[in-house]
Amino acid sequence: xxSNKKTWWKESVVYQIYPRSFCDSDGxxxxxxxxxxxxxxxxxxxxxxxxxxxxxxxxxxxDNGYDISDYQAxxxxxxxxxxxxxxxxxxHDLGIKIMMDLVVNHTSDEHAxxxxxxxxxxxxxxxxxxxxEGKEGKEPNNWGSCFGxxxxxxxxxxxxxxxxxxxxxxxxxxxxxxKVRQEVFDMMNWWCEKGIDGFRMDVISLISxxxxxxxxxxxxxxxxxxxxxxxxGPHVHEYLQEMNEKVLSKxxxxxxxxxxxxxxxxxxxxxxSAGKExxxxxxxxxxxxxxxxxxxxxxxxxxxxxLKEVMSKWQTQLQDKAWNSLYWCNHDQPRIVxxxxxxxxxxxxxxxxxxxxxxxxxxxxxxxxxxxxLGMTNYPFASPKDFRDIExxxxxxxxxxxxxxxxxxxxxxxxYKSRDNxxxxxxxxxxxxxxxxxxxxxxxxxxxxKTINAxxxxxxxxxxxxxxxxxxxxRKSHEIIVYGTYELLLxxxxxxxxxxxxxxxxxxxxxxxxxxxxxxxxxxAEFCGADIQILIANYQREQMEKNMILRPYEAVVCxxxx
Length: 562
Ligand code: GLC
Fold this sequence. Notes:
alpha/beta, Oligo-1,6-glucosidase, domain 2, five-stranded antiparallel beta sheet, binds alpha-D-glucopyranose, 3 domains
């Protein structure tokens, strides 16, 4: 069957690097490309196949590189194009592929196209962006930006407004203009010719807006919701098919689209096994389960039954039709062990391993975010002054100033959900600043680096690092982990996540205790025989038993060859 076609990107494990926070080689407090090159052996040891590199392009850093001012130049803090080439070469020598972040829903306002575009209404670059007249002295419509305030900025020069779904320094490109598409495709081809191996496409589901740009439903912030008119918009599939034809199909690439607001039905189009658009998408349904009334800002804990329902829906409904990406963490999400696990001293490692097991045994391509393989935790913020992220800073200011959320409560919410939680520097060892920099880090290192760091974990066989290494290697030796069909067991259980995978004459059972309590678990009869092999477990466990007692955060995976 087409969908079960075996390909390297289905069998790969991707590791995301957020370069600013990974490894600083020159002591300026900011991670860089030479720092990444130094650490490639570490990644080889972990066993990953592909690196997704968050943006390294020239950028004024309003949104840490997601605001690009030149797609064919390297951010000066990160090094030079020669440094990039060295990194790419060494990665390839080690058998590691490089997937670039492609941020083309918007550019920086300092990009040459925008500098031209804002000069005059008849500038050849005017239509590269989305300009509109104001309505009765106000914005063209009521859309709010993702980072607070209106999604429109007034530009005096031509007395018009431009659209920015993200910050004011991230104007949206006009994808309806064929010249914009061609520029983007040319730039992508240039990178492909350099030898890169794929693209992670930033908010790609937002590139096509409904032409009339209608007002959206007004939410708590007082602004209208743009999503019905911008997410998975009218021409998005057409444009991605054109991209596929003009770029992607010419190379052997791994591609993943970040698709906010994507449904299973839409994902089947983006990531269809027919291969006309992308390989896979990042969906957000499981990450949005603890969203609240004031957008994502709250303390709500995700209910396991809801999580299972969402994960299982994606597992079963894409089966044979499209391909899943699997992730708990990235540079926009808080640390998973603090969110779904338990970051207390007693249970941090156990729960980090359990979460890794639960995700890595599913069908799809797993993504590991830097530090996840160490069980890194959220940061203990002490004051709003500690926030560095534009989203956190703006949200705190806007919602407290408007009196929508009380400052103390908002501080708690932002501390829990801030993107900064995942952006604190990678913890390499127990020396100053966790070995990340010899200078002053651009964002504070989590003080727990003395106990949680790569050096210590690499030396200790039962560490989270070694456990992730094993999870990754199991995927290489057992096809069932890549291609097996998923089936959820015990959907109503609030503490236990159990599922099976089946392929040909094999069956895999995955059992994960998401609680800090002991649980009784009756093993399905088919897994009670003597021929059952335990593939991985986060506690000492010699064998499976008919009536099992699962210890807090216990995870165990066993295989039955029929
Ligand atoms: C994506 C990125 C995020 C960025 C935003 C705007 O969601 O992952 O970090 O702020 O797009 O580019």
